[in-house]
Amino acid sequence: MKNLTLLIFCCMIAACLSAGLPDTKSVSPAESPSDDGVFVKRDLASTVVRQKRAGTAPADLTVAQLESLREVCEANLACEDMMDTSGIIAAYTAYYGPIPY
Q1: In this predicted structure, what is the pLDDT of residue 80?
Q2: What family name appears in the similarity comment (predicted)?
């Protein structure tokens, strides 16, 4: 009975979501939105990515945040060794990915 209720609920959600979408068959090619804004020039994209990467500089992190990263990194011996040679930011990003804050 629970499966039937869940199936009916999912069907109702799908019907509600599809009711708000425009009918793609009735749109003529002349009325379709252009894709001019989808692509970005390479140099502009590179600038945006560079600015995004620069946003996680060590100067932006507080002492408490750095200590939190250090505690996470100390749990992994390889990360701890890299932390001693390359710094906490480089070690954390190498083993755990981008800094979450």
Answers
A1: 92
A2: Belongs to the osteocalcin/matrix Gla protein family.
Distance of CA 94 to the CA centre of its chain: 17
Find the mean pLDDT for residues 70-82.
Answer: 93
Instruction: Report the pLDDT averaged over residues 71-100.
Output: 91
* Residue 76: φ, ψ to 5°: -110, 120
Quickly list H helices, the chain. 2-19, 42-54, 63-74, 77-86, 88-96
Residues 79/91, Cβ–Cβ less than 8 Å: yes
| Cα three-residue angle 44-49-53, rounded to 5 degrees | 150
Provide the pLDDT for residue 82. Answer: 92
Cα(55)–Cα(90) distance, rounded to whole angstroms?
15
